[in-house]
Amino acid sequence: MDAAATLFVYGTLKRGERNHRLLADQPFLGPATTAPRYRVVDLGPYPGLVCDELQGLAVQGELFAVSECCLAELDDFEGVPGPFVRERIEIDGRGDVWAYFMNTPVPQGASTGDRWPLPAA
């Protein structure tokens, strides 16, 4: 495997979710929680991630060690740069790793929380 990067996933790329096949051959590093400065936005069939310095939450997700080749394929899958961008995110106890952030405005009335799918109200 070529040099690995650490990637934080919070939505359809997580284990058991519909797009996990794109990461299935990459090493799972374990569950992870971000610093409390982010929010997951429910976009219906998938989530987005945004920074929220004022009312941010500690977002729940998973870490994977991904090859550079896999990261390039995921960038293409996520439409980077476009509706999503890959940027650094602070993970408790791990420092900064990669994550995919929304690159569009949050839709008015969209639900947000600390995980996806969002818990039932």
From TrEMBL:
<dbReference type="InterPro" id="IPR039126">
    <property type="entry name" value="GGACT"/>
</dbReference>
<protein>
    <recommendedName>
        <fullName>Gamma-glutamylcyclotransferase family protein</fullName>
    </recommendedName>
</protein>
<dbReference type="InterPro" id="IPR013024">
    <property type="entry name" value="GGCT-like"/>
</dbReference>
<dbReference type="Pfam" id="PF06094">
    <property type="entry name" value="GGACT"/>
</dbReference>
<feature type="domain" description="Gamma-glutamylcyclotransferase AIG2-like">
    <location>
        <begin position="7"/>
        <end position="107"/>
    </location>
</feature>
<dbReference type="InterPro" id="IPR009288">
    <property type="entry name" value="AIG2-like_dom"/>
</dbReference>
<comment type="similarity">
    <text>Belongs to the gamma-glutamylcyclotransferase family.</text>
</comment>
<dbReference type="InterPro" id="IPR036568">
    <property type="entry name" value="GGCT-like_sf"/>
</dbReference>
